[in-house]
């Protein structure tokens, strides 16, 4: 197939689609994303992206229906993205990163496996609807953790561990941020919260013997009341090494990586996310809990990522922090191991080739972006019902708090 494949992407998580669209050769990806809150600046760049102008499902679906015939396939990220693709009658790929499939909305009261909080409290009709959304996708794609959940529900799930890093933004040649530095400095660009293991980090910092500081970007995980309470408790006990700094735009984050002496990643899940991958491409030593029981598959081989520590014990983390601060030789060794690994996992042109091949294969099979459906009237009825349920019963209280009342009301008119 020699034609350029036109892919309509709906939704994005941690800039994965935005990065991918820069490097695909056989496919041109147009990304339509959901309105962003101000505190999402860290993980998103608005360049070359179209945004929905409403939070209302009906208006989002209407917009996609107006443009769908300009495209060959749809790539949906997040349940919100897949929901719109389903209701707009598209053939769509569901791409999972993070915890979306670990707590699927079609399961009753699913609990986050890492922090044990309830992710959704949906009624029977909503759960049935989201199962239809999931089942209607032409294929589901996920990394190591996501695939282990996906295969519980889909026999045709595809495991794709490779995730692209935007090397135009993250590389060792990026000019460091113009900030003072009087002592060894870590940068922590993770969202602050239980899901990232800040309880473990706080305990470890109290055990450290070396002299250093951590610049912690001030943004928080606030998906539940429990997480908000957790954050408040930790903030009351902030270790002396922590200095909070303002949000950093993604386009500027690379300069903060090259400025720092080392990078703090997450200590909960056991695999690396965008922060750790991006920082490794900037050739900075990265602290990130790595579960030895969760190897990555790269070119058919299982590889345990060379990120430390390999346990979640605060004592082990404290020893690692002190060793990184005090030993340049150890830092350099860690940098080289992590950099060589991340090149194999996240070199963007290699990752884009895998996606180009998948798009090509699926287009040959499905021919068109339009999905055949016998239930369009039912689907439209469900969409209207969902709109009332989500925005009147559940989302209103949360969104007014996080968006601001005026902005929220403007986007739901």
CATH architecture of the largest domain: 3-Layer(aba) Sandwich
Compute the number of strand runs: 14
CATH class categorisation of the largest domain: Alpha Beta
Mean pLDDT comes to 88
Helix content: 40-55%
Quick recap:
With 413 residues, the protein is of the alpha/beta class. The protein has helices at residues 16-23, 57-67, 78-87, 124-136, 144-153, 198-205, 225-236, 250-259, 274-281, 314-326, 328-346, 348-366, 376-403, 405-411, and strands spanning 5-10, 27-33, 50-51, 73-77, 92-96, 139-142, 158-159, 185-188, 213-217, 242-245, 262-264, 286-287, 296-298, 301-303.
Would you give an account of this structure?
The protein is of the alpha/beta class and 413 residues long. It folds into two domains: 5-164 and 350-411, 3-Layer(aba) Sandwich (Rossmann fold); 185-346, Glycogen Phosphorylase B (Rossmann fold). It has helices at residues 16-23, 57-67, 78-87, 124-136, 144-153, 198-205, 225-236, 250-259, 274-281, 314-326, 328-346, 348-366, 376-403, 405-411; strands spanning 5-10, 27-33, 50-51, 73-77, 92-96, 139-142, 158-159, 185-188, 213-217, 242-245, 262-264, 286-287, 296-298, 301-303. The strands form three sheets. A seven-stranded parallel sheet has the order 3-2-1-4-5-6-7, sandwiched between helices. Helix 13 (376-403) runs antiparallel to helix 14. The radius of gyration is 22 Å and the shape is globular. The model is unreliable at 394-400 (pLDDT under 50).
């Amino acid at each position: 197939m020699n034609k350029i494949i036109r892919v309509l992407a709906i939704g994005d998580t941690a800039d994965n689609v935005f990065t991918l669209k820069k490097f695909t050769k056989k496919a041109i990806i147009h990304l339509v994303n959901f309105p962003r809150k101000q505190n999402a600046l860290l993980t998103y760049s608005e360049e070359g992206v179209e945004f929905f102008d409403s939070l209302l499902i009906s208006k989002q679906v209407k917009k996609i229906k107006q443009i769908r015939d300009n495209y060959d396939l749809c790539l949906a990220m997040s349940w919100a993205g897949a929901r719109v693709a389903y209701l707009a009658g598209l053939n769509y790929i569901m791409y999972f990163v993070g915890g979306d499939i670990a707590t699927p909305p079609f399961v009753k009261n699913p609990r986050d496996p890492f922090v044990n909080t309830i992710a959704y409290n949906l009624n029977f009709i909503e759960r049935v609807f989201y199962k239809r959304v999931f089942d209607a996708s032409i294929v589901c794609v996920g990394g190591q953790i996501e695939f282990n959940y996906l295969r519980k529900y889909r026999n045709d799930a595809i495991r794709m561990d490779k995730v692209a890093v935007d090397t135009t933004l993250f590389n060792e040649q990026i000019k460091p941020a113009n900030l003072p530095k009087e002592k060894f400095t870590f940068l922590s660009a993770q969202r602050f919260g239980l899901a990232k293991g800040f309880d473990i980090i706080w305990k470890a910092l109290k055990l450290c013997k070396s002299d250093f500081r951590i610049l912690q970007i001030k943004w928080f995980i606030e998906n539940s009341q429990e997480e908000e309470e957790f954050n408040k408790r930790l903030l009351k006990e902030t270790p002396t090494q922590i200095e909070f700094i303002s949000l950093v735009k993604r386009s500027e984050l690379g300069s903060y990586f090259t400025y720092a002496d080392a990078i703090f990643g997450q200590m909960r899940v056991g695999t690396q996310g965008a922060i750790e991958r991006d920082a490794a491409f900037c050739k900075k030593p990265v602290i990130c809990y790595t579960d030895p029981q969760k190897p990555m598959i790269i070119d058919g081989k299982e590889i345990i990522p060379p990120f430390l520590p390999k346990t979640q014990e605060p004592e082990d983390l404290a020893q690692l922090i002190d060793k990184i601060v005090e030993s340049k030789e150890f830092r350099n060794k860690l940098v080289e191991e992590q950099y060589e690994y991340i090149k194999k996992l996240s070199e963007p042109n290699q990752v884009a080739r895998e996606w180009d091949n998948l798009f090509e294969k699926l287009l040959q099979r499905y021919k068109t972006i339009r999905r055949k459906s016998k239930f369009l009237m039912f689907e439209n009825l469900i969409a209207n019902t969902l709109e009332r349920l989500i925005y009147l019963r559940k989302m209103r209280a949360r969104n007014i708090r996080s968006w601001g009342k005026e902005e929220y009301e403007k986007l739901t008119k």
